[in-house]
Amino acid sequence: MSSEPGSAGHDDARVAGWGGVSVPGREVRSEDLERLTRDAVLTRGLARSYGDSSLPPPSHPVVAGSVLADRLLSFDAETGRLRAEAGYSLHDLYRTFLPRGWFTPVSPGTQFVTLGGMVAADVHGKNHHVKGSIGGHVRELKIRVGTGDVVTCSRESWPDLFRATIGGMGLTGHILEVELTLERIPTPWIVGIKRRISGIDEFLAELKNDAAEWPFTMGWIDCLSRGRHMGRGVLMAGRWATPAEAPKRFPRHLPRITVPFQCPEWVMGHTMGRLFNAVYYRAHGRHVRPSVLHPEPFFYPLDVLRQWNRLYGTRGFTQHQCVLPDTAGSGAVRGLVELLTRQGGASFLCVIKDCGPEGEGLLSFPRRGTSIALDMPIRENTQAMVDALNEFVVNVGGRVYLAKDAFTRADHYRRMEPRLAEFEAIRRRWDPDRRLKSAQSVRLLGDQP
Amino acid sequence: MNVVMLGASKGIGRAVARLLAERGDRLCLLGRDVDDLRRSAADLGVRAGTDGAGVAVATCDLTDPDTFGPALDAAATALGRVDTVIVTAADFATQADLEADRDRLRRLLTVNFANTVLFCEDARKKLLGAGGTLCVVSSVAGERGRKPVILYGATKAGLSRYLEGLDHKFRSQGLKVVCVKPGFVKTGMTAGLKPPPFAGDAPDVARDIVKAIDRGTPVIYTPRMWALVMFVIRLLPRAVMRRIGF
Hints:
By secondary structure, chain A is an alpha+beta fold. Chain A has helices spanning 33-36, 90-97, 115-120, 128-131, 159-165, 200-213, 270-282, 295-299, 330-343, 382-395, 410-416, 420-430, 439-444; strands spanning 14-16, 22-24, 26-29, 43-44, 62-65, 72-76, 81-85, 102-103, 138-145, 150-154, 173-181, 183-184, 190-197, 216-221, 233-240, 257-258, 291-293, 305-306, 317-325, 349-355, 369-377, 399-400. In chain A, strand 6 and strand 7 (81-85) form a beta hairpin. Mean pLDDT of chain A is 92; it is low at 1-10. The A-B interface holds A 1-8, 10, 13, 28-32, 65, 68, 71-75, 77, 96, 100 and B 9-11, 14, 39-40, 42-43, 46-47, 49, 51, 90, 92, 94-96, 139-141, 146-149, 152-153, 182-185, 187-196, 245-246.
């Protein structure tokens, strides 16, 4: 526990999001989150948001980190009600509660997120079409708001603050404690099916069919194939296994491989992308039977590779995730995939998911429609690429996911987000001096840098 | 086993307490802030699946040796027989801060050495007279006089020597003494510092500590790599130590 030389000089320190986009600044941590947030303007959890949502604004280059505030405070084994400090992680929850037959009703694509982060981004998962996003399962939040006061809010008490905080990207207050209801699960195993789909129209139809039958669905699309193969990919569906189907033992924890260093750019370049997509597509059959699957790779396929963001190299990557409303018709999804393939292999990974109805969170991302997420290595043309995609999204009435975003322009965002005025009004009420902000809110909401 | 812990609500102590609670050990947590201890007790109770039963708390302030006796009595009452006493609590400040502030320095010297030794003496006599394990977290900072940790390191050097002596004298009488020497561990205590290579995480360090307690290992370095690092540091001649910043 010795201090080391060089530790005092933070002048050149930078703080980054998962995609590698960074700003000058540093993160401070303490077990005592309540005290830590007294002077803070932003709190982050495990920093898995891809863009700049967890990065501090230039005027106050320090972000509070919640990860050491990770205590469970209570759990009711009758109702599944769990209360914990905001830094408690989903990874920890998986370890402690899955063996006991409880799990989060909504799980994002990584377990390395905190409860506070899950609420701030109002995360959704493969079961959005049946369970909605995490906000719907949150009962109460303890928050330090912009005035410095600590407020407990719920649907009954200060409902405006509660709604604005769900999906509010930490801009309404520092989330200190979260109370949510866990879900009883029959076994920790999954019964699922993975099969290949040969084109975008079939994909959308099958996603809809599977949604009626399976609580977990999502698809991966090959964005590099053109012509009649455009939008081909692999569709995954699953549900919790019944005791009769599941192995008696608990799924063992998988070994993890760490990407040891920032990789050269060709690793996630066009050629490797084509190769990966072709191999992955062919690895799956067209007609397959459901089988018992390990829950970890099913929910968190990328967590097996620790620090996988290093695959994208020093320039990093971004994700463009948008939801296109059903009202825009299936032509909208086709249009977006066409736009992408026309741009010529901008994306290595593309994930598609049908979403259920919009939740309570005022800035919450999901709404009834189709969500498409594209991972893109950052290159010279990334801004232009995102602009083109956003122009399309605005025109069909969709919106982007702030937790992934680093490139959307304020003008585009305003046109996507009619709920913004209400959000800003609530923010003004709880933070009249506009103390709380992030690099993202400076970029998108016009906060003072 | 029945365990008394001083410093279980934060950092390495928190991680050790979780491992012990999860495997069914009974705990009594000692610390300054009872509300904070209760939150930690709740955390351990939920993790252990016992809803807080099996985790007791009692006030004990490492800056005030008068609180040690009553705290240890309360722990004995709560647990009955005590098998193990674990001390992870300590004070920390950077060398620069300690040089600049005499009162701050006095507090660190007192807490980390004098009061920790007093607490161990009291605990040994009151709770471990019939044998058991005393596990105390010292530091690799006490291995050599090093420029960045002269003052903090000196307290840990003294503590390590004290623990070594205890082991020599009392092992044959049934008291096992475990001196833990962590390298840099990423906790709240070191949150303001830039982690060096081989920096450890509290849960990994806690696993090493629990293993050492179970085996009664007199001295452990954790993360393990620090045993090698300190081996080299101990070999460096004075002339070299004067030149390097480490």
